Structure to design on (418 residues):
DNA sequence: TCCGATACTGAGCGGGCGCTTAGAGTGCCC
DNA sequence: GGGCACTCTAAGCGCCCGCTCAGTATCGGA
């Protein structure tokens, strides 16, 4: 677990690509509010208030409340995909790359739980067009993990009777971390990442390391 | 996978314990609406309309919209706990009981996805008192699964370095089925249950069956 | 010094929300 | 048959929602 290390860190400059500054502050405020209360329970007045602005200011930078969610979701999914791609294209064997992918993906969900929660659980709040775009990104996420598992099976390292089903389960396990992980809990994101990498290697029937 | 068979079926008479009939129709309508759109995006007018009643009729049977969610959540959690208890108190070894617990729990999440979605993902929409009551039920759910795993470790059937962490992962895997399972998809609840039982046995290091 | 562009605010519009109330319909016990 | 308890509806109250718009402050360039 080293190749994808730098991409799975604590969201180094989070949302740095969002400009200008006011637009980024609004977006960060929206992420926090959506994560705490959910998209539908969050008001535009709440988002603007958290960013220290009047409700009307939001509409200078974003056309609607939904556009905020769309932007958050797309950036988040692109980040998730980048993390998995980095791990999948690593140099080790399938077991090493799968462990790397799982541990960095889990660290992203646990460490950036606020963002991950919005990204993974507010998909249904998007309109049809935006949702379709995001679903395409999710298919790419699935393909990355499936690719590693297929490599392991082809190399004889893994014993996996149902590759698509196991891929689904591995991703499901990682994603659900965003639901239960507690920042004030006893486990650090790194500990959960290591535990989950071990569990996933067992799931694919990789021999003991 | 047989002892918990009858309790994990297709919600045989769903919500049969809710009376009178009008109250049950409203509750079933609320489950569907909450599952489709989420609690906050569902209006009381929508719930009443689905039940074929006027908006005011809802308030004869329930004090608030939140009371509906609370009732749904409590009944659902009690059912989930019953399913796991039945499996945990089965007669086989730890491996058999764990496989039974996972497969029946997964079948409940996949087959009754509508209900399970509300039960598992609308917890935060409850007020503090109701949430505390539900969290107590969830701790009992966790204890049942942890008990089976501990039995397996004590008997030397399982190899589990981190029992609480593995318990968390097993439950997480099952619960997340309610998020991704698609009724129109290619897999039946039974198939997913069997696949997941196998994956979980690998996670706990149980020997091949 | 003035100008236009940009970023923002205060006030508020139309509408839908959760929930209430007055009263009508219905069936059961005496 | 009369009274009552129960169930449900039509109407609507007060509130807050997403979003708009006229107007103000600020600032770089000529």
């Amino acid at each position: 677990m080293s190749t994808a290390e730098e991409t799975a860190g604590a969201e180094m400059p989070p949302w740095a690509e969002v400009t200008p500054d006011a637009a980024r502050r609004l977006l960060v405020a929206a992420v926090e509010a959506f994560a705490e209360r959910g998209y539908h329970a969050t008001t535009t007045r709440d988002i603007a208030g958290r960013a220290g602005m009047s409700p009307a200011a939001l509409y200078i930078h974003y056309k609607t409340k939904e556009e905020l969610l769309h932007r958050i979701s797309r950036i988040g999914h692109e980040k998730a995909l980048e993390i998995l791609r980095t791990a999948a294209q690593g140099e080790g064997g399938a077991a090493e790359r799968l462990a790397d992918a799982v541990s960095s993906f889990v660290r992203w969900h646990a460490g950036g739980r606020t963002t991950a929660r919005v990204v993974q659980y507010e998909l249904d709040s998007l309109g049809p067009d935006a949702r379709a775009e995001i679903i395409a990104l999710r298919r790419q996420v699935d393909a990355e993990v499936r690719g590693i598992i297929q490599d392991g099976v082809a190399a004889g390292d893994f014993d996996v009777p149902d590759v698509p089903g196991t891929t689904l389960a591995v991703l499901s396990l990682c994603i659900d971390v965003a639901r239960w992980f507690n920042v004030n809990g006893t486990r650090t994101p790194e500990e959960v990442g290591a535990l989950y990498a071990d569990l996933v290697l067992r799931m694919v029937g990789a021999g003991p390391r």
In short: The domain at 65-203 of chain B is CATH 1.10.357.10 (Tetracycline Repressor; domain 2). Chain B is about 65% helix and 0% strand.
